[in-house]
Amino acid sequence: MIGSIDERSAGALVELYGGFPGVEIIHTNAKTAEIIKYASNALLATAISFANEFANLCSTLGGIDVTDVMHAVHRSKYLSLASGNGSRAEAPLSRFLEAGCGFGGSCLPKDVSALIAQGEHVGSPMSLLKAVIRINEQQPERLLSILKGHFQSLKDLRVAVLGLAFKPDTSDIRLSPALPVIRRLLEEGAKVKAHDPVANDEARHVLGVAPIEFCDDLTQALTGVDAVLLITRWEHFRRVPEIIKQFGQAPLIVDGRRMLDKRDLPRYAGIGL
After folding, report:
1. How confident is the model at residue 153, as a pLDDT?
2. Is 74 helix (H, G, I), strand (E, B) or coil?
3. In this structure, are strands 191-195 and 158-162 parallel, antiparallel, or unpaired?
4. N or C: which end of the chain has fewer CB within 10 A?
5. Do residues 71 and 80 make contact, with C-beta atoms less than 8 angstroms apart?
6. What is the Cα–Cα distance from 256 to 56, expressed in whole angstroms?
7. Domain ranges of the chain
8. Residue 161: in which H helix or E strand, if any?
9. Residue predicted with more confidence, 212 or 87
């Protein structure tokens, strides 16, 4: 996507990006290019909140697991391509149509909020995107609601929070769902442990002097707790079931990303279940 103001600037940009072979180039004016970028991120944010809205409905109705629902939706002809052996390959967009505890980071929240503000400024209210943000802001609270459904009180409850980065493979914790979750746990008197493979130091800086035990080791984080809140989809966390098997009494696992198999854990709860 090349947004330019004249042929000279367009040519310079084409030359600049010529080092990326096989990438389709779309020529537009600069204003259109900016909106294309915003629209792309807004679509991804909308897909996430769409999946989370259905997760919350499934939880309320009962007897439905949102992962079964989304697994079937991903196989539709609109979100997959037929392969030669009769199966279907999922489109990359399907990765965003998965229930969880919300999106964070610097791009999706910022871009959607910017579109809402711009729409208000020019008299074009962005009602859909307002709902996307509202759903996302409420989603971390779902984890706490699930937790409260299993314990009479959070006071002195020993809770491990797994994942502090807003997504795996980064130490970026900007607008991570883990932050409001941890703050609410502390407000209600819970004793909090936290573990992230790479983002512990960033979280220490942001959360300041809050009474949190940061653990550099996953087993250490899981030891001696009553409940575990899984917030970031780190592959590292797939070891949770095998570690839990070593304990005499298993903690409740609240899976905020639905990445673990509920059959592998004696006490399991999750978004959209």
Report:
1. 95
2. helix
3. parallel
4. N
5. no
6. 12
7. 2-132, 140-270
8. strand 158-162
9. 212
Could you give the CA distance from residue 28 to residue 36 in angstroms, rounded to a whole number?
A: 10
List the Cα angle 52/179/181 in 5-degree steps.
60
Residue 150 clears pLDDT 90, i.e. is over it: yes
Q: Of 58, 101, 107, 215, which is the active-site residue?
A: 107
159, pLDDT greater than 80: yes
Report the mean per-residue pLDDT for the chain.
93
Q: Please list the residues that pair with 212 across neighbouring strands.
A: 192
**107: annotated active-site residue:** yes
Interior CA angle at 101 toward 185 and 62, to 5°?
A: 100
pTM to 2 decimal places: 0.90
Sequence-separated (6 or more) residues with CB below 8 Å from residue 85: none
133: three-class secondary structure by DSSP: helix
Taking domain 140-270, whether its CATH number is 3.20.20.70 is answered by no
d(CA 189, CA 87): 50
Is residue 82 predicted with pLDDT exceeding 90? Answer: no
d(CA 265, CA 250): 8
Euclidean distance between CA atoms 209 and 228, whole angstroms: 22
